[in-house]
Amino acid sequence: MPELAIIGGTGLTALEGLQITRREVMHTPYGEPSGPLTHGVLSGKEVIFLARHGYGHTIPPHRINYRANIWALNEIGVRRVVAVAAVGGIHADLPPGRLVMPEQIIDYTWGRASTFYEEGLTHVTHIDFTYPYNAELRALMIRGCREVGIDACDGGVYGITQGPRLETVAEIDRMERDGCTIVGMTGMPEAALARELDMEYAVCAVIANWAAGRGDAGEIISMEEIERNLAAGMERVRTMLTRLVPLL
Ligand code: HPA
Fold first, then answer.
1. 13-22 tens-digit pLDDT
2. Which domains does the chain have, with CATH numbers?
3. 57, 188, 209, 224: which to mutate for ligand 1, most atoms within 8 A of CB?
4. Mutual angle of helices 223-247 and 135-147, in 10-degree steps
5. Among 139, 170, 200, 234, which residue's CB has the most CB atoms within a 10 Å radius?
6. CA dist 137 to 13, 99, 221, Å?
7. Would you say 66 and 28 are in contact if contact means Cβ atoms under 8 Å apart?
8. Is 42 within 8 Å of 23 (Cβ atoms)?
9. Looking at residues 215-243, what average pLDDT do you find?
10. pLDDT in tens, 59-78
């Protein structure tokens, strides 16, 4: 059974260092996942990789089949998921390039298929989501970072917007008042779906840019900037993952 599944986001459509053994095409009751599951070996253990936006990075955040992705991973016996996500930094301590293991979520998305519990129910089901991320997995990622000298932020609130456009300054101001420290587009419903299937799930966020209106006053957000910052950030993610796997 695989030790871990890694869901890669923007900037991580392939996992360097993963010795790929095979690719598995899956079909689920909810449709097709973002692509075949990539089976491989990382740090001596079996790991599964899936690119959330597809291997060619073609699926926008609101069109990802989150249910098929999580269902497929669960179906092949994955119990633990590290979800990598590119985000904007809202809090002043979270500049581009830094890694963040958030502790909480505020969901601003709408219209996404967000539960497995809606058809053919014998009773209405409400999952506990008080603490959306698995504490042990978060702690191991933080430990992995410390051991290799990566300065990661332990905690914070991940606000998830609908996208695919970035936010206005007023929207980020409101999110900051709400308590969000980072903003991204893919954290939900992925986390809730993993909880519905009782999987251990945690996010490693990589700051790609200052959120709208943060950082240098008056700057707009350029895709070149995002890509540059992500390249450096994803290198840190790979290092962290290589260290994390032996700790599991
Ligand atoms: N906002 C939302 N999602 C993002 C951002 C952002 O600024 N950067 C990377 N993903």
1. 888 889 999 9
2. 4-247 (3.40.50.1580)
3. 209
4. 100
5. 234
6. 22, 15, 32
7. no
8. no
9. 91
10. 999 999 999 999 999 999 99
